[in-house]
Amino acid sequence: MTKCVQNQDKIMEYKRRAKELVGKMSLEEKCFQMLHSASAIDRLNIPSYNWWNEGLHGVARAGVATIFPQAIGLAASFDEELVEEVADAVSTEARAKFNMQQEFGDTDIYKGLTFWAPNVNIFRDPRWGRGHETYGEDPYLTSRMGVRYVQGLQGRDENYLKTAACAKHFAVHSGPEDVRHSFNAEISKQDLWETYLPAFEACVKEAKVETVMGAYNRTNGEPCCGSKYLLKDTLRGTWGFDGHVVSDCWAIKDFHEHHHVTDSAVDSVALAVSMGCDLNCGNIFLYLAQAVKEGKVSEEQVTTAVERLFTTRMKLGLFDDPKQVPYNVINYSVVDSKEMKAKNLETSKKTLVLLKNENHLLPLKKENLKTIGIIGPNADNRRALVGNYEGTASRYVTINEGIQDYLGDEVRVLYSEGCHLYKDRISGLGKENDRIAEVRGICKESDVIIACMGLDSGLEGEEGDEGNQYASGDKPNLNLPGLQEEILKVIGESGKPVVLVLLSGSALAINWAQEHIPAIVQGWYPGAQGGRAIAELLFGEYSPEGKLPITFYHTTEELPAFTDYSMKNRTYRYMKQEALYPFGYGLSYTNFEISELKTSSGELHEEGIDLTCTITNTGEMEGRATIEVYIKAERPGTPNAQLKGFTKVALAAGEEKNVTLHVAKEAFALCNEEGIREVLPGTYTIYVGESQPDERSIELMKKAPRRVTVSCS
């Protein structure tokens, strides 16, 4: 897809028009425009507008829309082009729904064109409930996915935004959820600039994201929605951000109620606006006019904020002749269309990760099966398809439904929920483990068992999510909840071949399964078509190609404290222990070989270097390989080899292709203690393969990446 180049003359025109329009408003009118539910100003022909909309993996909370795989699954695709295509599809449906809603006068919440997505926080701890909203634990992968999602949402027209994207939550935000309104994330400048800020910087400087949302917490003592360092010095100063800043919802009242950095609501809104927060998700900016009258913030600062907001609305074409805006012709018929369903299925297939396949149990051959058993609380769980911040699908295909649809009458399917997702019984009046006999009976009758375990967005999510077992949204540990592991052991001990399909948005410590279950698939929250994608994977209609965007650990005990934001011993980049399943890992049904790795130079120059290699599909099935590039600075005290490039290569059985990858000099940089990126003299090892170069990845993949060294003088 072509990169959008914004028309600077047009942007200057929008700014001029916004300034002229805002200049006609009273102080009170301007303050009301800074609420997410901005009221109409009839005398100026300004309609009401609700800024709050969600589009993390599909248009959310506004009726029927295509529900794509959750963000963590999109990250597992390791496919930039796919992520932009998904975001483009989301924004197409967004415009179609908006055009329809406008026709019938519906301007309610979740009905605008300003989408508070993507979430580019770093998934630093697997206990964090909102981690499945992110693109995983790696700054580079998160940056690439975030940039492309923003570009897909905002479109490629030089004059108009298709929708306005929002990079959130700025910054250093990843739990715990239950203390997010009062928590102070203490972080070194080195970790801040090496881990927590790169994705935001990329979204701002490369993707030209229109909006940035501040986080609930404090960072190094400053509340993020009123932080001089983050909002003024970094975002607008160092990075030159030219859009608008929105608070997280009701975050500004935390300044005085929980962070205790201000004394009152008036002081809190004054701090937020003076530091550059332009839009309040919530209603505390009702105090803003009073703050101006008390001299705690200037009317000029209010005016600047409102001008930014109206510039965004003008970029969306909301004040232009509808015939001038190309996106106004998108018809509602595209929503949930046959083409959208096909794109959703294709996307889901590319997100699934094969973690284990002992003795090539997968793919299954239906001609060899008479009866298949499907057991587990996630076999028929729609909520485990979609994650959070979701829309409504016209049809959900669970794993149970997907397999039954795929097999038709050719193979008998037996199904049992097996156990509750987290409780000790399914029937309220039943005894504990009240489906265990049914589980044993199905195992006895079946040729192969598909065990469907894991989590759903009722167990991991945002603080306060309805029905969350743990209230905060975070996980207390990495174990399968409730009776799931007990049921899995009964299935495993039946003597029948077993495939474990995990639906979850985060890592689980499935140590027993890795030791005893022959085949394991990580399905994430795979979208409304997820059951169909999983069925086709199990029966070999295509080869899996997903890679883990997070580390799967052995235990919770090996993790640092949840509240410790230092990156020491966190994620694949800094951990010293062996992973259960490493970041970047994932198997295929076919086999790829990388050979003839060469660099354009043995010396690192300003323009970077080019890597060339040959990749061959030496297996018997077509597939798409993920080539991953890692760089290790060979000097003491540096991180483990870090991801700095990736690409997808489609290959038929027996086919080979030559691949060229460019690696910029910036990829060799590390941050010093002051957070300044620098490429120091010395030797750097570059690894190119289908995984990390760590010992555990090599053991699981049964092959090592190729490597070359370059020097920097």
List keywords for this structure.
713 residues; four-stranded antiparallel beta sheet; 21 helices
Structural overview:
Helix content is 29%, strand content 17%. The strands form 7 sheets. A 6-stranded mixed β-sheet has the order 9-14-13-12-10-11, with helices on both faces. Strands 18-17-22-23 form a 4-stranded antiparallel β-sheet, with no helix packed on it. A 3-stranded parallel β-sheet has the order 3-5-8. The model has no long low-confidence stretch (mean pLDDT 97).
As a percent range, the share of strand residues is 15-25%
Record the strand order, biggest sheet. Answer: 9-14-13-12-10-11
The biggest sheet amounts to:
6 strands, mixed
Total number of beta strands: 23
What sort of overall outline do the alpha carbons produce when their principal axes are compared?
A: globular
Integer average pLDDT? 97
Low-confidence stretches: none
Number of distinct helices: 21
Radius of gyration: 26 Å
Question: What class do helices, strands and sheet pairing give?
Answer: alpha/beta
Distance between the termini: 37 Å
Helix content: 25-40%
Care to give the gist of this entry?
By secondary structure, the protein is an alpha/beta fold. 29% of the residues lie in helices and 17% in strands. The radius of gyration is 26 Å and the shape is globular.
What topology emerges from the helices and strands here?
Layout: H1 8-22, H2 27-32, E1 37-38, E2 49-50, H3 71-76, H4 80-103, H5 139-154, E3 166-170, E4 184-185, H6 189-196, H7 198-205, E5 211-214, E6 218-219, E7 222-223, H8 228-238, E8 244-246, H9 254-259, H10 265-274, H11 288-293, H12 299-315, H13 338-351, E9 353-357, E10 371-375, H14 383-386, H15 399-407, E11 412-416, H16 436-445, E12 448-454, H17 484-492, E13 498-503, H18 511-516, E14 519-522, H19 530-538, H20 571-574, E15 592-599, E16 609-617, E17 623-633, E18 642-651, E19 656-663, E20 670-671, E21 677-678, E22 682-689, H21 695-701, E23 706-712
Helix pairs in contact: 1-12, 4-5, 5-7, 13-19, 15-19
